[in-house]
Structure formats: structure tokens, C-alpha cells
Amino acid sequence: MISGNRPEIKNYSNYPNYIYFDYQEIQDSISKSSLKKVAMISTAFKQFSNWNGKGRLTHIDKQKVEKIIKKAKKLKKPFRFWATPDSKTAWKAFSELGVDIINTDKPAKCFNYLNELPQKIAEIKSFSKVYTPTFKINSSKKTVKNIILLIGDGNGLSQISSTALVNNGELTLTQLKDIGLIKTQSADDFTTDSAAAGTALATGKKTNNRAIGVNPKGKPIKNIIEIVSEQGFNTGIITTDEITGATPAAFYAHQKDRSQKNEIATDLINSNLNLFVGGGSATFENLAIENKFRLIKSTNDLKKANNKVGFFISKKKPTPVQNGRDNILAEVTKESIAFFKQKQKPFFLLVEAAQIDSFGHYNDTNGIITESIDFDKAITEAIKFADKDGETLVIITADHETGGFSIPQGNIKNHLIEGSFTTNDHTATMVPIFAYGPQSHLFTGVYENTEVFFKILKSISK
Ligand code: MG
Ligand code: ZN
Questions:
Q1: Residues 34, 161, 194, 281: which is the catalytic one?
Q2: Residue 103 DSSP class
Q3: Which of 47, 321, 366, 445 is surrounded by the fewest CB atoms within 10 Å?
């Protein structure tokens, strides 16, 4: 294809079969025989706009650009602008405008970006019904009776922001007023994993990555569930991970490595938990779990359940929301709270939305947001209960951020988010913590993840 210095258009057809031309004179008419020799149509972008490729085209420029593209498309040849801005924002804008050939000095980067874009864009169709808390008991100095701790694994600020933005700009979570930031570094690494972060939240001690409820030397550390159980609390754990996953395990197990599934499972069986709900029944096939826990088959059975009860929602890891997991996290949260409430004793309930992290690792925006909306539904159940109960403190946080997730673009009206990722691993950025109920003010400020443990103990001390 000849571009640059070309022969006169009327002479195109005099050239051999294998030679084509870049047609740059859209304003002129062209004969059928010359058009046959046209490989692409090009024109200078600067004639229509001075856009620098940041933000977006002005409405007036966009109209001009659309008009020329429409005109060129009538000739049914690939269309290109030259002298264009050369950025992700520009590549995306030109591709959406229907420009067929993107002018760039970074063809590989441009290809990868546009190729991966569909996976990075989420268009959300199912929403969280936002509950507005009464704030009657918020920040009161009253001693807390019950604790509900909700952990969104990998639920950083962009995860929360994107989820709120697609959910008409609001979540139940974003109604809350007492907010802090926690630092997540582990004992042996700048960037934590879920085992060390879970252990920090559960025990108030920093440990090494991969360690579950043990210190850097491998010695068991008492966790919050063990401590409050001794004080007469009923305790429970709900997760959308396998129940032996690192986050839940940090609240009942003591093992050097998160991969020691069988040992962790045995710790669960021997734990003083009154209730657990999660995936991963396969791990327990040869373990005598039914000597300790009555295993139930549906959320409804929770109503009739006695003291030690377990509910496996899947053999392995539970199905993601985007592949059809129903509303089970919120339902089980609601029914577990009712289960504890009946017993009249104080309770500590941990709820983990585990798969926000999984989709951060997969760099899948839709997965992150659908799991995070699912999380907000569970948060809603906890906050509603706290309002009715008046003695329950609800704490919502994350163990770390996953994906280096950011949200360069989106569309609130269409519930659309473009995600961008800097890694398929965790990041060291601070994560938000929200609290609601009596003593919620204890959780404001910027502090280490280990402080969460001490703040919980403070909230329940008489
Ligand atoms: Mg987890
Ligand atoms: Zn992770």
C-alpha cells in the first residue's frame, strides 16, 4: 500500500494488482475503478480537533469527527486518522468511534490494551438495595454486646468506589460515617498475603506471609474468637471461600502455612466455633467433622439448628456470583444473626466476601464488582440488624488490596466501569475500615491492621 507521495487518483488503476493506495482526499469524488485500488482512507485528525488524548473530546469536536468518519465509511474501506493523540484514552475513543486503523507509535501496547478491554469493562445489571442507617446508636459510648466483622478480601478503595459508582453512586457501606484507613504490611513482607493479614486482624500480631494464627517463630497466638468464647460469646464464621481458606482459618486455626489444609480442617473441627458456613466440604471427607458439628443442608435449617452447626455451600470453592451463585452470602448472614440472637448470649460473627480478591488476581472488573455488590448485601443485613438491636457493632474492612485496581473511566448512567490493573497480585496500599454502632468512633484514624483486634476488645470491655 502506497501512502505519502502517491500518483494522481485517476491513475490508480494503471498500477499492478498487488499495489494499493492510501486515499486521503475524502472531499473529492472518486471513480469506481480508482476506488478498487484504495486500501484505506486517511485524513489528518488536527483538521477536526486539537484534542490531546486526555479526558474526552468536546461535544463539538466529537460531532465533527463523527461526521467525517460517517462520510468515509460510505466508501466501505478501512478508515484512519493520522497525527492523533497516542494514549490509552485516545485508542479507546477512536475504537469506539469506529476508526478502523489506530495510528500509534506503540502498536503492541495499543493492541494489548484494546484486546483486553472487554474483560476490563463491567456492565452491572444486578444491584445492592441501599439501606440508610438510623445512626441512633452510632458512636455511642455504650459497651458493645455483639460484634459483626465483615472482611472483603482484596476490597480496596477503587473496588469500593467502582461498586458504589455502578450502584447509582451509593452503597449501604458508603452511608457510614466512622471511617479509617489501615496499614497492611506483614512481618516479613512489604506486601501482605491473606494469611498474615487475617492473622493480624484476628490476633493483633504481625506475622509472616503464609502463617495462620502463629507468630513468625511458628508459635500459636490466641485469636479473637478464642478470647471472646472464653468470655461467654457465641462465635461464627461465614465465607464465600473454602472454609479452610486463609482468611477464615486465621480466626480458628494455628498452622505455619496456609497450604496445610488438613491440619487447618482439623483445627476447625476442634475449634470452639458455634457456627461455620463456607465451601470446601471435600477437604473434610475423611475427617470426623460430624462428631463435633451438625451439618445442615440449607439456609432454612439454621433456624432449627442447635449449638454447633456447619453448612457447606459447595464441595470446593463456591461458584462466583457472575457464574450464578445466588444471594447466599446475605441470606446466610441474616439467618446466622437470627441464629445467634435466639441464643441471647453475646456473639462474634465474621463474614468474609472472599472472591473480590480472586477477581483482582484475574484482573476481571466484572468479577470484582459483582462480588463487591454481593458483599454490600451482606453488609446491609448486618447494619439493619445493628439498628434493630442497638448493642451490635459492625466493622467492615479488607485484609489488603488486590490488583492495583484503578478506574480510569466509566459511565454511571449505564452502570459501566473500565478497570485498570497494575498487577495480578496484592498491593501494599492502605485499605478502608468502616464501623457502625456503639463505639464505632474507635475505628476512625489511620493505624496498623493489628490495632483492629485491640479496638474490638476495647469495644466489648465493660
Ligand atoms: Mg480470603
Ligand atoms: Zn489474594
A1: 194
A2: -
A3: 47
Give a yes or no: residue 85 inside a domain: yes
In the predicted model, what is the mean pLDDT of residues 347-375?
Answer: 98
- Tell me the average pLDDT of the chain: 96
Question: How many domains, the chain?
Answer: 2
Average pLDDT over residues 115-120: 90
Decide: 194 and 357 in contact? Cβ < 8 Å.
yes
- Owning domain of residue 144: 124-460
Dihedral (Cα; 98, 99, 105, 110), 10-degree rounding: 20
133 with 88, same domain: the answer is no
Pairing of strands 21-23, 38-44: parallel
Does 116 fall in a domain?
no
Is 31 tagged catalytic? no
Does residue 113 sit within a domain?
no
* CA 356 / ligand 2 centre spacing (Å): 9
Distance 101 CA to ligand 1 centre (A): 43
Q: Please state, in angstroms and rounded to a whole number, the distance separating the CA atoms of residues 7 and 294.
A: 85
The answer to the question of residue 110 being in a domain is: no
The per-residue pLDDT for 27 is 74
Full-model pTM: 0.92
Percent of the chain at pLDDT exceeding 90: 96
